[in-house]
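Recap from last week: sequence in, structure out.
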Amino acid sequence: MAVSAALVKELRERTGLGMLECKKALKETDGDVDLAIENLRKASGLKAAKKAGRTAADGVVAAKVAEDGSYGVVLEINSETDFVARDDGFLAFVNKVTDKAFAEKAASVEALVDDALETERQELVQKIGENIGIRRVALVEASEGVVADYTHSNNRISVLVELKGGSAEVAKDVAMHVAASNPQVIRPEDMPADVLKKEEDVIKAQPDMEGKPAEIVEKMMGGRIKKFLKENSLVEQPFVKNPDQTVGQLVKGAGGEIASVVRFEVGEGIEKKEEDFAAEVAAQVAASKA
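Predicted structure tokens:
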């Protein structure tokens, strides 16, 4: 039977799917909207699986901390594009996952995702038409102090900071600083040996080192390594709200000590595959005519 534009419009409004997909589903059910929805839901796992191979390197991060500052969670949920990362349905899913992680004190994706949540994720993939993935989750619990969070206004960077002693206000200030400055370690002595070795090799290869006596090279290297550690260690960095004071001085002055830091930035470490957009559109058009 011929499928009317009104039926297609109704199915699109109820599912959020594209016109061609809705039209095809209605043709298969002779215009029965409810049966079309049921069939589409049955096929959602397959559709989600097909989209799972596409790189989801955009998305948002989110954090939630207990009112008493005793613990907090931070997570990253990815989409393929920034456009979907602003979609109300996607953001509602993010909020639901964040609340679940918080309520269950989930410390990993494996601990968080159950069958119900995975089904909901697959249905969202079908509805939105992009791969959606819960990439990572972290739990921070305060043993002797307080946990605070800071999320950048565009939801692309989120930080949890745990202080021993101190206050929630200072912990939040430190979290804001970490979001802006992205230190590699908390203290200079925390810097991994392989990172220091790599930095030393870079310094030795610099033009002004050439031809100098070994003792001069070592002296110059010592100064530059000290500078490198100061620039990349949280406690040594000038505090963003008061550059005359280091972060370490800020925290110590409040009677605290930085115990742990977790910083999530959307897409960090993901190698995004370059897509041929024109070829993808052509493939979709060809598929619609099949």
